[in-house]
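In response to the reviewer comment on reproducibility (Comment 2.3), we provide here a single inverse folding case reported in full, input and output, so that an independent group could reproduce the run without further information from us. The structure tokens appear first.
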């Protein structure tokens, strides 16, 4: 029992549905259903019947969600296993053929295609893309010099 509680507490910090958390959830909902049944028998109140139905729906939804997560994890592991098998098969095929260059050419990635891919982002004529940079004197107010401040101060004196 102590080991179960330890696993339950550690499962809170573990992502995904752990077996101890699922067992604790199912035990809690079973106890809730039992209490609601006893209260329904003792009081004959419809409220406990409605609460029991709502609780059963939530219990079913939680178990369905856990099953979906486990199915998704199983599918993910299968895909991972298939990728590893395919990777090992491709590596073995590359080793059997002799060199990596031969394997690349068989897949259609020969040297000519590689050359086109490397230069694929460059235009045919680089002159069409090149532009002349603006010099500092052409900047429109980006940089100021002392001579410009002199001009401003001279204009201000003339206005006065």
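Designed residues, in position order:
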């Amino acid at each position: 029992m102590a080991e179960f509680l330890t696993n339950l507490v550690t499962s809170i910090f573990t992502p995904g549905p752990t077996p101890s958390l699922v067992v604790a959830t199912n035990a809690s909902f079973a106890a809730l259903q039992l209490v609601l049944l006893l209260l329904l028998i003792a009081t004959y109140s419809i409220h406990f019947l409605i609460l029991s139905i709502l609780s059963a729906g939530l219990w079913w939804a939680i178990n369905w969600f856990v099953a979906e997560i486990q199915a998704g994890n199983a599918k993910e592991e299968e895909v991972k296993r298939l990728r590893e098998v395919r990777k090992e098969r491709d590596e073995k095929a590359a080793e059997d053929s002799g060199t990596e260059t031969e394997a690349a050419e068989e897949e259609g990635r020969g040297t000519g295609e590689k050359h086109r891919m490397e230069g694929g982002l460059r235009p045919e004529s680089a002159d069409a893309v090149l532009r002349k940079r603006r010099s500092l004197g052409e900047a429109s107010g980006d940089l100021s010099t002392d001579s410009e401040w002199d001009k401003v101060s001279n204009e201000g004196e003339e206005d006065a």
